[in-house]
Structure prediction request, 345 residues.
Amino acid sequence: MNKIAIVILNWNGRQYLERFLPSVVMYSTYPHVEIVVIDNASTDTSLEFLSTTYPTITRVVLDKNYGFTGGYNKGVQHIDADYAVFLNSDVEVTANWLDKPIEHLHTHPNTVAVQPKILSFENRAMFEFAGASGGYIDFLGYPFCRGRIISEIEQDNGQYNKPIPIFWASGACLFVRLQEFIQYGGFDDFFFAHMEEIDFCWRMKSKGRDVFCIPESVVYHVGGGTLTKENPHKTYLNFRNNLLLIYKNMLPKQALLVFFIRFFLDYLAAIMMLLQGKPNDAKAVYRARKDFARHKKAFSAVRLLNMQENVVAQHSEMYTGSILVDFYIRRKRRFSELSIARLFQ
Prediction:
């Protein structure tokens, strides 16, 4: 029987552990399951709460805050399991949430990562921003979801209940083959947080592996617990990491055109932020592009290795259109309205 580790990363999140661990404990009755909390050197009373209230939960205590990427990368070195479920601390799970994703991994050896359907904790009829019912990416490197395009979030009416291959699976609830996750470098530590799961999935898909959404499994995600949507540092990480994501994984000839277009689009986004009264976000975009240019050379060897190991250059789950043009000009607000949706009906 395969061993499963439900791995929750915590940093000063006692309020989330108190609120959401009960559902994890109650509904994680699958055989051979271990719940593990990796603590990123919290300074609140998280560890005291765990030892008192949940003494049987395994704790891996790190010496400092390594972020989302480093926290998981270092923590999983102490875990012995076949499958790991990276679960955000602000996620409520539901009955039988483990069954179908684990069954899929067991019966589809080429699948390396899976996500469930992710709905909003605050409004349970709606998809949640960070993952919805599976992630995709357009040719300019902009991610979107089956159930969320740009800022438009759809209501869940069962329209995306079909299990399908996707481009990336959300880090809010990410099922992976643990040994392969470790073998292929896990998350990129430099990312710290945001888009690291897209980078991992892109690397795996380029190696010929599959990523799936299994909507029969449902979880509810709060979202924005550590960095809120309005946080300029989140803006910085999203823009910087998105550029690194493209540089590391996109074919060089295609990337040349994309970076040319993105130069104008990124600064247009910064101007819009200024006009909206968000000067700190506009500065974050400028700093992100500056830091990307400064660090790009350090990733040239990784990029070369990725290109050499690629066995799949073109992905059907990569949208050949522009999600910005579709959203702002063609006024398409739903995933089902995009041409890529027809490939996965």
Observations:
- The radius of gyration is 19 Å.
- Residues 190 and 310 are 22 Å apart (CA to CA).
- DSSP finds eleven helices and 14 strands in the chain.
